[in-house]
Amino acid sequence: MSTKAQDVALDQLLVSRFKNGDHSAFDEMVSRYWDRIYAMVHQLLRNPQDAEEVTQDAFIRAHRGLENFRGESAFSTWLYQIATNLARNRYWYWWRRKRDKTISFDQPVGDDNETPLADVFVTDEMDTPDNVTINQEFVDQIAAAMERLNKKHREILILRNIKNLSYEEIAGALGISVGTVKSRIARARESLRAKMGAEFK
Description:
One of its GO terms (molecular function) is sigma factor activity. This is RNA polymerase subunit sigma-24. By secondary structure, the protein is mainly alpha-helical. 66% of the residues lie in helices and 3% in strands. It is built from ten helices and two strands; from the N terminus they run H-H-H-H-H-E-E-H-H-H-H-H. Strands 1-2 form a two-stranded antiparallel ribbon. Strand 1 and strand 2 form a beta hairpin. It starts with a helix and ends in a 5-residue tail after the last helix.
């Protein structure tokens, strides 16, 4: 069996495991494809921060859609298509949501939380903090959503986005694999967006 055929067969097995309730299979998919997806997206965007965020978003979309994945194309082809579409639409979201009031990304996320907004929210998607304008309601949504995340999701976003730990450092700190770290971060960001409601979809 060729290497490509072996890859397809393993992907099919992982998809089947996931659909049968074994969610660790998704962590294995992340481990298998993260570097390849990141390299492809980085080649398109030429920016490591943008490439990382698009890669994570691609796995978020894949996680959402995998239950309905019919296998009409190879899993890898499907995943690459998701990532390519996200890369092409990279700046569409923030451009559409620019507001007429500038908010400083140095301001705290809330009255009881002194953490700067820029440290909590993933700003890689934005043009630059100086050029993005959003409204206070949006800032408040972020702060409230962070408070509603479960402990694991809030913890891993803090380790990654506030403490700026590497995936390897987070894996060591939490006693989990790097693939699980990446998968959990993707799910935490998905949860954050879901808790912020339709405005962030």
